[in-house]
Write a structure and sequence with these properties.
Layout (H helix, E strand, L loop, with lengths): L2 H51 L1
Length: 54
Amino acid sequence: MPSEQAERAALLMYYGGDLVDLVLIVMWYRTRMRRYSWTLRGIWRTRTAARRLR
């Protein structure tokens, strides 16, 4: 294998791993937000309703 090709392959593996990490983080974040979004909406509604009663 020529050295240029080996260098390109190494860079692809190095930065490709970072890309995979980024994709996994985004997927985790989206799943987490979906799971807790109903809680956040409920808290917001409760605070808004309490303000209206004042």
